[in-house]
Each structure stands twice: as structure tokens, then as C-alpha cells.
Amino acid sequence: MKNSRPPSLRMIADLAGVSLATVSLALRRSPKLLAATIARVDQVAAQVGYRRDANLSRVMSATAKSRYRQAGEVIACVVTRDPRSAWGRNSDPKSVPFRAMCKRAADYGYTAEPFWLLEEGLSAARANDILLARGTAGLVVFSPSYTLRKNGILTLPIRWNKFSVVEVDDVMTEPILNRVRHNHLSGIWRALEELEILGYRRIGLCLLDNVEVATHHRWTAGYLYWSRVRGFANSFTPLISNHFSEGEITQWIRKNRIDAVIGPGVEVLERIRSCGIRVPEDVGFASLDLFGSVTQGVSGIDQRRDVLWPMAIDLLVTTIHRNIKGEPEHPSTLTYAGEWVPGTTCRKVKAPPVPRLEESLPPWRATSLHVQ
């Protein structure tokens, strides 16, 4: 197949026995072609030594975006937790990150729309038929409730092999998809660092057990590593419970002389205050997930869903263009560390300085945005 001429699309078409348009679609991984056709074109292109022109690819990409805008291809955002009446309203904290996701989809020429998979009266078979009939380009699946977990397996009734899919968070156990999620390790290390800067030393972690499972123990792992390098490994352990009674939290704080508490959300903060413990006068508090108006004024980590959710569109569009459907051969995860919000539930306290131990405690900045 060696030729004195530079390899061209026409040459590949002639050798593969297909049209020029088919070669163009195959090199762009168009879902309109059979996988066998794409593989044949790839094989011939490799044999003749064809390489894409980067400048031409950019032009073709811009042309494709324009075409998609006219066609209005839809990305379905699969919702299983929230009712239709609440989704996207200005009072809903998810409205801001969802609008950011819709804007990112529009940048690529797609329309992002919510789809209620488990809505009452809608069977799984009918839901899949609707998605297919609409010619859905791909799915962004928001994490389902843990109440759907059965025999240790959490999945959804979707015909995975029919769609390009990206999951927001990584709650589902089957299938293992391309995902975007918060970087839990970076988040808790950032919170611990900020609390230490303020002067807190005996910092406790308080989690509900379903949150512990949903985060795959990453917050606990990060905290236990910090407690070891800070010399607290044998002093006190995280409080993990299926519910927080007032006496349980009070006893844990007082017995271990804890001066600051880290929790996933405001539930722990409300329990602490209901025990008569003043925040931040008696104990400081930092949340690992500031989300919505109920957390206004609370110190902690804003996971920045307005940044994270559009990343799901970036990853999904790549998945669509590569014609990957269902469970990918090599699943990828994009993570984002979020940002620290000072708030009013922590304050500066007097304490001797603590060495940074940079060699022992990985800096959160080094893992703020990466692919793993």
C-alpha cells in the first residue's frame, strides 16, 4: 500500500471500498456507522500512514458544532431523586449548576434537558423507548438515592449499551462509567489545613454511615491519614452513626476535648447547636459540602457544582464523538477539589503553630483538578 503521494481521504476510501463521506464519518467516530466500518477505515488509514491535519480538524469541529445547533441534538440529564416540580427553579440550589451545564452543552451545539427516569406511572421500558425515540445523543446520570441499592448493587434500569453516558459522582456500582465527582481527599485536607491555620488542633470528623459509604470512605481515609501524621491516631476516632442523637454527639465532643468538628453538611451543625454547644464560641464547625441557601454563613468546602457539572458535558461530548456506548473499556474520572469558604462557624483561636509537614500531608492544591 505504499504510495509516493501523501495519503489522503480519497486514497483511504478507494482502498477500503467505501465512499469519501463514509471515511470522513468514520474518522470522526460517527454513531451513524457500524463499528465494523469504522474499524476497516481505521485499519486502512493506519496502513497508508494517514495523519489528521490539526488545523483542518479544528475547522471541521467548528462546522460540526454549527450543524448540531441547527439539528438540536439532545443530552438527557437523568434525574431520579428530585421531583419535577422542584427541579431547576430559582429556589432550588441545583438551578445554578444546571444552568451552567446547559450553557456548556449549548457551546457544543447540544440541548441539555432533565429526564425523570423513575417518574410515577412511567415504566423502565417506556422510559428507554422515549429516550431512544428522541434520538438522545447521550446521558448525564445524576447519582441515584441509596434507597435503590439492592444486595449491595446500585444501578438504574437503563439500556446502557444504547447510549453514551457520563455519571455525576460515583454512587452507582454497576456499570462503571466515565464520571465526574468532587475530590474528597483534597476537600478534607483543605478543610483540615484551614482549621489548623485558625488555631484548631483537636479536630473531629462526624459522618452519617450512608455518607461514609456514598463517598467510598475517602473523607475518612483522608482524615485518618491526617490524624496519624498529627499524632492523634490513638487519641480519638471519627464519629460515624446511622443517626446522631444529641447525647452521642455531646459525649463524643466532651470526652475527646474536640475544639472543631468537620461534617458533611448542616445536619451535624444543627445537632451540635441543639445540644446547647455554641458555634463557634465553644466548638468550631466546617462543612465538607456547602450546597444551597441553608448553608449560608457556614464555613467549609464549596464543591463548586457550577464548575463540576459542566465538566460532565465536556467528558460526555468526547464520549459521543468517540462513539463509546455503555460501560467504557477504560473508565475515566474527572475530579475537582472545590474551594474553601471562610464563613462564620469558625474563628481564629490561640494555639501554638503546627509544622506543615508538607512531605507527609499532600497539599490539596496538587490534586485540585486531574484525571485518575
What does this structure look like?
By secondary structure, this protein is an alpha/beta fold. The chain has 3 domains: 9-52, no CATH class; 70-176 and 306-336, 3-Layer(aba) Sandwich (Rossmann fold), CATH 3.40.50; 184-303 and 338-366, 3-Layer(aba) Sandwich (Rossmann fold). Helices cover 38% and strands 15% of the residues. The strands form 3 sheets. Strands 2-1-3-4-5-11-13 form a 7-stranded mixed β-sheet. A 4-stranded parallel β-sheet has the order 7-6-8-9, sandwiched between helices. α11 links the parallel β8 (260-263) and β9. The model is unreliable at 55-60, 63-72 and 365-372 (pLDDT under 50).
Descriptive labels:
12 helices, 15% strand, Rossmann fold, four-stranded parallel sheet, alpha/beta, 3 domains, 13 strands, seven-stranded mixed sheet, 372 residues, 38% helix
Topology diagram in text:
Elements: H1 9-16, H2 20-27, H3 35-48, H4 54-71, E1 74-79, H5 95-107, E2 111-116, H6 124-133, E3 138-142, E4 165-168, E5 178-182, H7 184-198, E6 203-208, H8 209-214, H9 218-229, E7 239-241, H10 246-255, E8 260-263, H11 266-274, E9 284-287, E10 300-302, H12 305-321, E11 333-336, E12 339-341, E13 369-371
Helix pairs in contact: 1-2, 1-3, 2-3, 5-12, 7-9
